[in-house]
Amino acid sequence: MTPRLPAAEVAPHVLVWGAPPGCAPSPMLLLSLLLSLAPSGLRGEETRQVYLEVPGWPDRPQNLLHIRAVGPNSTLHYVWGSLGPPAVVLVATNTPHSVLRIDWTRLLSPEPEGGLAVLPKDSIQFSSALIFTRLLEFDGSDSAEPPGKPYAPYPLDEFSWNNITDSLHPATLSATFRGYPKHDPAGAFANGSLAFRVQAFDRAGRPTRPPRLLHTADTCQLEVALAGASPRGNHSLFGIEVATLGQGPGCPVIQEQRSIDDEYSPAVFQLDQLLWGSPPSGFVQWRPVVFSHEQADRGSALSCRASPLHPTLARALPRSSVVRAFFGPQQSYCTFNLTFGASTGPGYWDQHYLSWSLLLGVGPPPVDALSPLILGIMAVALGTPGLLLLGSGLALLLRRKPPSEYRSIT
Ligand SMILES: *[C@@H]1O[C@H](CO)[C@@H](O)[C@H](O)[C@H]1NC(C)=O
Ligand SMILES: *[C@@H]1O[C@H](CO)[C@@H](O)[C@H](O)[C@H]1NC(C)=O
Ligand SMILES: *[C@@H]1O[C@H](CO)[C@@H](O)[C@H](O)[C@H]1NC(C)=O
Ligand SMILES: *[C@@H]1O[C@H](CO)[C@@H](O)[C@H](O)[C@H]1NC(C)=O
Ligand SMILES: *[C@@H]1O[C@H](CO)[C@@H](O)[C@H](O)[C@H]1NC(C)=O
C-alpha cells in the first residue's frame, strides 16, 4: 500500500538532491517526505495488472501497442508506435480507471494533433515521450575524431515496420517492432533489420539476459537490436539518435551514477540516467554497454557513449505522429546520440549484431542494491578481522577460565 521500494534501494537516489550539508535529514525521512509530496500516480505500485492492446484500423498495418498497467490507485499508459519513427508516449494517471482514446482519422492524417488522449485529462500526473529518430553510422577507421566521419543516417520514419500482432507475447508481456528501410538501393538491409522489443512487467525483478536492469511494475524495457545489416565500411560504428520533449527552457541532463561491479552486470561500473524534472517524475535508465553477440555475454560487451542533450527544432527531426497526436505541434525537442562500441576491439563487424537496452518508467528510478552474493562476500571480508579481534579480546578476558565454550567463536 505504501511505496514499495525498500528504503536502501531508493536512498542513494534521494541523496542526489538532498539538503545542504549540516542539516541533512536522514534518507528515510527524505524518502517519506518525497513520497508524501508525490502525486499518487507517481508513487509506484508493487504489482500491476498489465494489459497489452493492439488497437487497429482496417487496412492499416498494426503498429500501435498500448500497454496499460493498472494499480490500486493509478494507471500507467505506455503507447508505443511506429507511425513515423518508433516512439513511446508515457502517461501516469492517479486513477485505476483512466483510458486511452484514439481518434484514428486524426491520428492517420497529416495533422495528427488530438488523435491520442488519455481520459480523464485531470487524472494525468506526468507525461513525456521518447522518439528514436535516426540510425547513425560512422566510419570508425577514421579514429582521429571519434566516433568517426558520419555516413548519411537512416531516418527511422522511412522504415517499413512489421505488423506487431505477429510478435505479441502476452505471456512475457512483450512485442517487437521490426523494420527495414523502404528504399534500400544498396541492399544494406537485404538480410537485416532493426528491432525494438518492448517488454512490460507486472512486478519487480531482473531479466535473465544481460545487462539485467532491475525493473519494477512501473517500468517498461526496450531492447534495440540491429542484426544482419551490411555496414558501409569495414569499421562502421553504429549509433542511434533519440529525441525527447523539451521541458521549459532547457533539456534534461544525463546523470552518470557509479555502481558496484556486481554479479548482475560484471565490469559495468556505471548506470546512466535521464530524469525528466525533479524526481519522482519520469526516467530513462541504461547501462552504458551494448552486446555484439546475441548471447550478450561478457566477451561481446562493448561500451556505449551518450552525448549531452541538445535543444533541436521539431522540423529538423523525423515527425512522430504518435507524439504529435498526444502533445500537439511541440516546437522544442531535445536530442542526444548514443554510439555503440569503439573503433578497436570487438564490434558490429564480428557478427553483424548489436543490442542495447533501456528502462523507461515513472516515479523513483530503481536503484541497485548489493546482491546477496556480494553482501556475502563483504560480510566475509569485513567479518574475518572483526571476528579475530573479538576472539583475541575474549581470549584475554577469559584467560583464566576454561575456554572451551568460546572456542567456537574464533
Ligand atoms: C489508495 O486509495 C485508497 C482509498 O482512497 C487509500 O485508502 C489507500 O491508502 C491508497 N493507497 C495508496 C498506495 O495510496
Ligand atoms: C496483422 O497480423 C494479424 C495476425 O497475424 C492479422 O490478423 C492481421 O490481419 C494483420 N493485419 C494487417 C493489417 O496485416
Ligand atoms: C543475403 O543472404 C543471401 C543468402 O544467405 C546471400 O546470398 C546474400 O549475399 C546476402 N545479401 C547481403 C546483402 O548480405
Ligand atoms: C575493407 O577491407 C577490404 C579487404 O580487407 C579492403 O580491400 C577495402 O579497401 C576496405 N575498405 C575500406 C573502405 O576500408
Ligand atoms: C548526432 O549525430 C548526427 C550525425 O553525426 C549529427 O548530425 C547530430 O548533430 C548529432 N546530434 C547530437 C545531439 O549530438
Give your account of this protein's structure:
42% of the residues are buried. The model is unreliable at 1-25 and 396-410 (pLDDT under 50). The chain has 410 residues and is of the alpha+beta class. It has helices at 7-15, 27-37, 104-107, 321-327, 348-351, 372-397; strands at residues 49-53, 64-70, 75-81, 87-93, 99-102, 116-119, 124-139, 149-150, 154-155, 159-161, 174-181, 193-200, 219-227, 236-245, 254-258, 270-276, 282-286, 289-291, 301-306, 310-313, 332-340, 353-362. The protein has one domain (13-366): Beta-galactosidase, Chain A, domain 5 (Distorted Sandwich). The two termini are 44 Å apart. The chain has 6 helices and 22 strands. It binds 2-acetamido-2-deoxy-beta-D-glucopyranose (5 copies). One 2-acetamido-2-deoxy-beta-D-glucopyranose (NAG) binds next to strand 21.
Describe the secondary structure blueprint for this structure.
Layout: H1 7-15, H2 27-37, E1 49-53, E2 64-70, E3 75-81, E4 87-93, E5 99-102, H3 104-107, E6 116-119, E7 124-139, E8 149-150, E9 154-155, E10 159-161, E11 174-181, E12 193-200, E13 219-227, E14 236-245, E15 254-258, E16 270-276, E17 282-286, E18 289-291, E19 301-306, E20 310-313, H4 321-327, E21 332-340, H5 348-351, E22 353-362, H6 372-397
Antiparallel strand pairs: 1-2, 2-3, 3-4, 4-7, 5-6, 7-8, 7-9, 7-14, 10-11, 11-12, 12-13, 13-22, 14-21, 15-16, 16-17, 17-22, 18-19, 19-21, 20-21
Helix pairs in contact: 1-2
The chain binds 2-acetamido-2-deoxy-beta-D-glucopyranose (5 copies).
One 2-acetamido-2-deoxy-beta-D-glucopyranose binds at residues 61-62, 163, 165-166.
